[in-house]
Write a structure and sequence with these properties.
Order of helices and strands: HHHHHHHHHHHH
Largest sheet: none
CATH topology: MetI-like fold
Mean pLDDT: 84
Low-confidence stretches: 1-17
Helix content: over 70%
CATH superfamily: MetI-like
Number of domains: 1
Strand content: under 5%
CATH architecture: Orthogonal Bundle
Number of helices: 12
Distance between the termini: 37 Å
């Protein structure tokens, strides 16, 4: 009976601690108006992309040959491209592809990076040496070159672009978590967990990881911004998402021949990329400040 009460009390304290920590982070984040601006912009973009079929009057592949190179107007807010397709519609639909590529690629990199970094950082020794040498080989290849090689081997496309972007992001995530794990693995609470015969899996993922994950969250948020830019770069050189899908980088690539004749073909997809990356960077800076232990007091 007594042990049951102690266990329930311990669980309650842990739950309260997690809730209070989350509340502290949210409170600190709300104080940062610039970070909240970035969050609001990102939320608005996601909502617009999700509701694109209901907002736009035209499909992203719908052509009107009488409106080729049409300038912005009330009929076509962002004008039309060389095939008479509405650029406003294509920018809205393009947000689905560009933002989802960034988020999914970073999520894959985070999951794999957590597995590698947690195991390497906790066990150390030969296990750490093997994992780190493999990551050294991957990081020896410049990131953009590695993505181009993977995309060229797998072929262009939505999923292949995600794979290429996630592979090049994994080493940075893994190394960051490994460094945090090595700092925390000799702490007193880890020794206490070992003394009551906690399994290694439990120690790594229930005790160590929650105390090491904060820098990874910040890195992942800013990584989404970088990944969106890299995805646009791959599409721009023809190795990413392929037309007629309206990914922002692919739109820039298709419009580069008309940049002098019809600059609006380039301006609006470029602005979409710039605003999204700016919003994510502002949010990432705010999260870094909110998760800073120095601000707890």
């Amino acid at each position: 009976m007594r042990n049951t009460m102690i266990n329930n009390l311990t669980k309650s304290n842990k739950k309260h601690k997690k809730q209070s920590e989350l509340q502290r982070v949210i409170k600190q984040l709300k104080k940062n108006k610039i970070a909240m601006l970035g969050l609001y912009i990102l939320i608005v973009e996601i909502i617009l992309a999700a509701l694109a079929p209901y907002i736009s009057r035209y499909g992203y592949a719908e052509m009107d040959l009488t409106a080729c190179f049409a300038t912005p107007s009330f009929k076509h807010f962002f004008g039309c491209d060389d095939m008479g397709r509405d650029i406003f519609s294509r920018v809205l639909y393009g947000g689905r592809y560009s933002i989802s590529i960034g988020i999914i690629a970073v999520l894959i990199a985070v999951v794999v990076g957590i597995c590698i970094g947690a195991v390497a950082g906790y066990f150390g020794g030969q296990v750490d040496n093997i994992f780190m040498r493999i990551l050294d080989v991957v990081q020896a290849i410049p990131g953009m070159l590695l993505m181009i090689v993977i995309s060229a081997v797998l072929g262009p496309g939505f999923m292949n672009t995600i794979i290429a972007l996630s592979v090049s992001t994994i080493p940075g995530m893994a190394r960051m978590l490994r460094a945090q794990m090595m700092k925390e693995r000799d702490s007193e609470y880890i020794e206490a967990a070992k003394s009551i015969n906690c399994s290694q899996f439990s120690i790594i993922f229930q005790h160590l990881l929650p105390n090491c994950i904060s820098p990874l969250i910040v890195q992942a948020t800013m990584g989404v911004a970088q990944t969106i830019t890299l995805a646009a770069g791959l599409s721009f050189i023809g190795l990413g998402v392929q037309p007629p899908l309206p990914e922002w980088g692919a739109m820039l690539s298709a419009a580069r021949s008309y940049i002098r004749q019809s600059p609006h073909l380039v301006i609006f997809p470029g602005l979409a990329i710039a605003v999204t990356v700016l919003a994510l960077n502002l949010l990432g800076d705010g999260l870094r400040d909110a998760l800073d232990p120095k601000l707890k007091n």
